[in-house]
Design a protein that fits this description.
Blueprint: H1 4-23, H2 32-35, H3 45-68, E1 74-78, H4 85-91, E2 98-103, H5 105-117, H6 119-125, E3 133-134, E4 139-140, E5 144-148, H7 154-163, E6 172-177, H8 185-198, E7 202-207, H9 215-225, H10 240-244
Helix pairs in contact: 1-3, 5-6
Length: about 240
């Protein structure tokens, strides 16, 4: 089982890699700098290109879904970390009915702090009446919700989503960007089955490691293991076929 602290640390790594790539001009994101300080490390072009592909692919598919549903839909981002997609979509005039982000409370509390202290982030969330409910680790506004939950605890996830007023009859897109590989297969299967059974119209966008038995995959596994982060779901990432299954 991956250490939760080690998994949370991967959010910081990803955020700093994204900021580095943005500052090198791979894509535009005026909000990532509010989420994470500039890192000391310099990243190879392969890493920058990898994050460019990751961000571009996920956001392109999300935009397509939002266009098909005429924005009359919901977005649920599992393990969202310091993702800034909500703000990027706002700048593009794309406003789903509800945008919900879920992560560990240690991550969401820091994101709440970043949002609260950055006017550029807070202004996009405020509705016409300006009402925002903010606690230590959660934030609720008219169309944006940041909630703390452990994805291995399905009962907790369901309750938190209900607190956000989620509508199971509306088209809903779930996003898991490099998340499920850290969760045991049993919990992932239960989560996917719950989504399938409870929601009427669903799209699930999953960006995950694959081909983990090749040399690059083994280096990744060894590197994470040295940081007390064992990939609990790696058995389903051995090949593209196991991932599909």
């Amino acid at each position: 089982m991956a250490s939760d602290d080690a998994v949370r640390a991967t959010n910081d790594d990803a955020a700093q890699c994204k900021r580095f790539a943005v500052e090198r001009g791979y894509w535009k994101d005026p909000y990532i700098a509010y989420m994470t300080p500039r890192g000391q490390a310099k990243h190879a072009p392969e890493i920058n290109r990898g994050y460019f592909a990751r961000v571009s692919a996920m956001r392109a598919l999300l935009r397509k879904f939002l266009k098909i549903t005429n924005q009359a839909c919901q977005v649920v981002n599992f393990g969202a970390g310091f993702d800034t997609t909500y703000w990027i979509l706002k700048d593009e005039g794309i406003n789903p009915k509800s945008y919900i982000e879920i992560d560990f409370d240690a991550v969401t509390s820091r994101k709440c702090h970043h949002i609260k202290r950055a006017k550029a982030l807070l202004e996009k969330i405020a509705s016409e009446d300006g009402e925002i409910k903010l606690s230590l680790s959660e934030l609720h506004a008219s169309d944006y919700h940041l909630i703390a939950a452990n994805l291995r605890n399905l009962q907790e996830v369901e309750k938190k989503l209900e607190d956000c007023g989620i509508d199971k009859t509306l088209p809903t897109v779930f996003i898991a960007e490099c998340v499920l590989v850290y969760i045991d297969v049993k919990s992932t299967n239960e989560l996917l089955k719950w989504i399938k059974d409870k929601f009427k119209t669903v799209l699930f966008l999953n960006y995950e490691q694959v081909n983990m038995n090749d040399r690059f995959g083994q280096i990744m596994i060894d590197n994470l293991k040295s940081r007390d982060c064992v990939l609990s779901g790696v058995e389903d990432c051995v090949s593209l076929e196991t991932q599909k299954q």
